[in-house]
């Protein structure tokens, strides 16, 4: 690959990554607009309409062979059934959190998510923490403790979001399949219960997806593209950028979510200010440590 081709790849990766995290960061606005629709129904439509959008993208990218290969492997299929359950919990709790004016908790959850990955590495993979990682985890723990003790509220929503996405990400790495084919299979696992729930709402006469509300129908149909397209951008980015670069970019999403929370006038107490202050310092320490580790030359193992 020539230097020009490499520069173009990096530029494309940066644009795609920024697009993905920006869309994820402003996603709360979409769920706020859909506030009158129950979070469970929004979740059902998010799953249902992600399937045809995913199918179109798989066709465009010629990735159906990877999907067929996964369907012939029961172990991989079962693994994605488990990851589908975790991502459904994450999506559902996130939608409900935004609709009930708790965007700050959602933002906090995605700030501490990378630190959760570090802890999984320690307790599951027996990895040894670097000093910067230890400091970042300690700072985040202090921030959460302040919010719990001084603010009188344990941020359980933040932990549900962080833990569900951490387990999703960890288990997802154990299944050898690309981002788009994997998401498609996960939504296939979820789509029948989602359709059944939608039909039940229709029979009860409580569905928001009615001809009397064409605007709401349009918004619910939009759930598919808003679910799949950011992941497509992220997949493009991940193939072209270093992990340390993606590590920096992943904090853009919760930062934008935090700004959206401010825009909607959510209560921001002194406890929140102290907690987020510690979290932001932890993010800086975590990012600088990751950057330093990425630049450090790797030792070449000597032959035995």
UniProtKB/TrEMBL annotation:
Cite the EamA domain residue spans from the record: 12-148
> Which domain of life does the protein's organism represent?
Bacteria
User: Where is coiled-coil annotated?
Assistant: none
Give the Pfam families listed for this entry. EamA (PF00892)
State the SUPFAM superfamilies in the record.
Answer: Multidrug resistance efflux transporter EmrE
The keyword Plastid is annotated on this UniProt entry:
no
**Membrane topology type, per the record?**
Multi-pass membrane protein
This protein is called: EamA family transporter RarD
Q: Which UniProt keywords apply?
A: Cell membrane, Membrane, Transmembrane, Transmembrane helix, Transport
| Transmembrane spans | 12-31, 43-64, 76-96, 108-125, 132-150, 156-171, 183-201, 213-234, 246-265, 271-292
Q: Indicate yes or no for the key word tRNA processing.
A: no
Chief location of this protein within or outside the cell: membrane
